[in-house]
Specification:
The protein has 73 residues and is α+β, with helices and mostly antiparallel strands. Helices cover 16% and strands 26% of the residues. A four-stranded antiparallel sheet has the order 2-1-3-4.
């Protein structure tokens, strides 16, 4: 049986919060997910831990920062 190709993030790998301040993304993972404030955002691991609601259907998707491969959600 053939293994499905892994899903990858095709956009820019950047934290919406870090980038506002001109700081480059240096993280193990990032999450495209819903924040405690309501809107969705791309978050580095530090911002996700402070502002993210979780990983899973309707909440967020977690991606490896080096490869862009989806690892959860």
């Amino acid at each position: 049986m053939e293994e499905k190709p892994k899903k990858k993030w095709m956009g820019k790998l950047a934290c919406d919060f870090c980038t506002e301040n001109g700081v480059a993304l240096e993280t193990e993972f990032f999450v495209d997910g819903k924040t405690k404030m309501g809107p969705w955002a791309m978050m580095c691991d530090a911002h996700f831990l402070r502002l993210g609601l979780g990983v899973g259907p309707g909440v967020g998707q977690k991606f490896d920062a080096k490869t862009g491969e989806k690892v959860a959600g």
